[in-house]
Amino acid sequence: MDHITFARFTDRQQAAAGIRGMRKSDAHGLRICVHPGGYDVAAFEDSLRYGADFGDSGLRHALVLGLAAGLIGGAGIGLLLAETGLFPGTYVQGAVFGAVMAGLASFLAVSLLGPNLVDRRLHKLVKGLAANEIVVTVHTDDRDAADRVRAALEASGARVAEKSVA
């Protein structure tokens, strides 16, 4: 399981100290990406959209919400269609039909649009990013390495957020 750690540093020296600390921590298999400040949140998100991998996106969260909304909304529409007689079946059949069709449609739509969403933890971390601040994204292969990375980043004074990706 991959673990992703997002860190926000106040300046380049602090970021350099954090990266040196990670490298000294014996955490192997690190993939480090440095994002310089000077962006507003929208510009930062645009830079991630075109250069990020799956872990930086909010695709999984969007898929769950999209599927749930489609199933619930579709069931309601199916019940309404069965009530008005536009669906030739029982209420239960109308609700199931509506839920399945709307669930599939929303799942498809979100799977196409979801990779453009920035992970909500990363979004919260970069809100109000100043010109001299740095954001570092670190991907690790195991939990132990992620814990060492987090400790090294926090020791250098970074604000840290984490997530796991299956």
Write a short abstract of this structure.
55% of the residues lie in helices and 17% in strands. It has 166 residues and is an alpha+beta fold. Strands 2-3-1-4 form a four-stranded antiparallel β-sheet, with helices on both faces.
Features:
four-stranded antiparallel β-sheet; alpha+beta; 4 strands; Alpha-Beta Plaits; 166 residues; 55% helix
What can you see in these coordinates?
This protein has 166 residues and is of the alpha+beta class. The protein folds into two domains: 2-56 and 119-165, Alpha-Beta Plaits, CATH 3.30.70.600; 59-115, no CATH class. It has six helices and four strands. It is elongated, with a radius of gyration of 21 Å.
Mean pLDDT: 79
Overall number of structural domains: 2
CATH class assignment of the largest domain: Alpha Beta
End-to-end gap: 5 Å
**How many beta-strand elements?**
4
Helix content: 40-55%
| Helix-strand makeup class | alpha+beta
Q: What is the H/E string?
A: EHEHHHHEHE
How large is the count of helical segments? 6
Q: Give the radius of gyration.
A: 21 Å
SSE diagram, text form:
Elements: E1 2-9, H1 12-24, E2 31-36, H2 41-49, H3 59-84, H4 91-113, H5 120-126, E3 134-140, H6 143-155, E4 159-165
Antiparallel strand pairs: 1-3, 1-4, 2-3
Helix pairs in contact: 1-6, 3-4
